[in-house]
Amino acid sequence: MAHERRLAALAWAWLAVVVSTTARLSSARFIVEKNSVTVLSPRSLRGHHKAAIANYGVPEYGGTLTGVVLYPSSDSDPKLATGCVPFGDNKKKFRSPSGRPVVLLVDRGGCYFALKTWHAQLAGAAAVLVADAADEPLLTMDSPEDETPDMAAFLANITIPSALVTKRFGDALRSAASAAANSDEVMVRLDWRESMPHPDERVEYELWTNSNDECGARCEEQAAFVRAFRGHAQLLEKGGYVAFTPHYITWFCPEPFLGTPQCAAQCVNRGRYCAPDPEGDLGAGYDGKDVVVENLRQLCVHRAANATGRPWVWWDYVDDYHRRCSMKEDKYSKTCAEGVVRSLGLPMEMIEKCMGDPEADAENEVLKNEQIVQVGHGTRGDVTILPTLVINNVQYRGKLESTAVLKAICAGFKESTEPHVCLTPGMETDECLDNNGGCWRDEKTNITACKDTYRGRICECPVVDGIQYQGDGYTDCKAVGPARCAMDNGGCWMETRHGKTFSACSGSDLSGCKCPPGFKGNGFHCQDVDECSEKLACSCPHCSCKNNWGGFDCKCSGGLMYIKSEDACIAKNMSALGWLVTALVVSCLAGAGVAGYVFYKYRLRRYMDSEIMAIMAQYMPLDNQHESQPLTTQETQQA
């Protein structure tokens, strides 16, 4: 037994060397993720401040929380100010006079950060701000590394957000909150909307995990998360909304340790890729190299699944492997893994080729890449603990729980591009249900410019059945385009009376409303024009005008007929003399036409005959041509 303890001690000492060496070589970067705290009142404290998001609880990614700052009195027990003891029967104190949510301010020190939040949550607080005790840059409040069963119980049940604020800001809040009984409430807005980048319609996220299931509460947390989140993850991937990549932390064995039993038991590829012993005991159970090999297999499972167009199958494999091939049941093996691979229809040959030879003294391309991407870049720090979730290249802060993680992923979508799963009642509040979100709405058709998003509502003129609306979205939206009249008549005037319908919307116009002929107005309201009384028509002699809706009737006296285009009356019937005169005129016109045609044909024939004779004379001279030609000058002189 003593020998095993020595081995374990040696193993952990070696691991510390590996971690420290890796940290130095990679120039470790630790990024503190922040949210915004805006003081709304009192006026003297108004302003914007940064706070460091805690790595436990549930940050409201994509949302805000407005509440009243309360500071627990420390008269009876100084530990109340730090939140290190339960607040007991003081729940009544943690209710603001205005009824708004309580943001409890506590001092740093005296106990774990997470314990302060747990006590505040039990006392009815909606969020916790921890005031730093020293003037220093903000840091991330983390959960205890060595979790006891009691700690694990309350850590898993923390559901409110927490953040660390600077000493200067904390002192100002404490003074204002302590004096709030005699003045205005200290009201703040905690804002996480910009804590998660949301550049476009696709979220990219990665989970740094481990196939080891003997590492206590952390391993159980990872397995429970994969099991609970698998359905959401696969739904998002199948819809093309996200790109997911699993990762596994590996270390390398320092050169001085390459020939040691520790390195041989915990590393593959001659010390290049290592993992800690699962049980922390080199003399029992599985070795670290067994974990490295299974981690490598799970990476290759994802690559093979991705190559076959089913990247979401990785979630099935990991969950099935944990259930069927656990270390506790002594089934953590290649044989069990291959059974899971076959059951999921994955290509075994592709996976084996991807894994290569773990015993070779050579680099493994897959594991080498994991060591490279483990180092932080851009807005993401180094990955040093498990599990770690990274969303849009920002490390997620909070507990690894299905709903909390889904909310964080939903906050990573650009507004109005979220999948339906992000807009369900359990995920967010539909602000369009309350007074239409303050946006424009057509009461007749119930078409609205309010669009619910995960981050809140936006007022944006919609597209309905291919018809685009344009406007500011708040007070005005109008249909535009060729088909606009099909949608509530383009917002224009339209009325039907006595079976006749008139409209101010014209399909030939892309926008605007114009009253039709017979009506006047602005196109949104039109009224009939009285052409008769305004002398706009039927004003000729012998005309009798009667106005009707959308037009008029005009009649002529004396049996005359009204011609609307000329606004004139003409006779309907003609006398016998009229018919005779008409016949004579028609006969004259016909005779002139025939004579003209005959003359035209005669002249055309004479012209054509002369032209033909001239052409023939040039190319086929006639016999009498010489006789008919005049004498030249020389011939005249000779004669």
From TrEMBL:
The chain crosses the membrane at residues 576-600. Residues 1-28 form the signal peptide. It is found in: Golgi apparatus membrane. One of its GO terms (biological process) is protein targeting to vacuole. Its main location: Golgi. One of its GO terms (cellular component) is Golgi membrane. SUPFAM superfamilies: PA domain. The keyword Phosphoprotein does not apply. Keywords: Calcium, Disulfide bond, EGF-like domain, Glycoprotein, Golgi apparatus, Membrane, Protein transport, Repeat, Signal, Transmembrane, Transmembrane helix, Transport. Residues 528-570 form the EGF-like calcium-binding domain. CDD domains: EGF_CA. InterPro entries: cEGF, EGF-like_Ca-bd_dom, EGF_Ca-bd_CS, PA_dom_sf, PA_domain, VSR_TRX. It comes from the Eukaryota. Belongs to the VSR (BP-80) family. PANTHER family: PROTEASE-ASSOCIATED DOMAIN-CONTAINING PROTEIN, VACUOLAR-SORTING RECEPTOR 6-LIKE. This is EGF-like calcium-binding domain-containing protein. It comes from Urochloa decumbens. The lineage of its organism: Eukaryota, Viridiplantae, Streptophyta, Embryophyta, Tracheophyta.
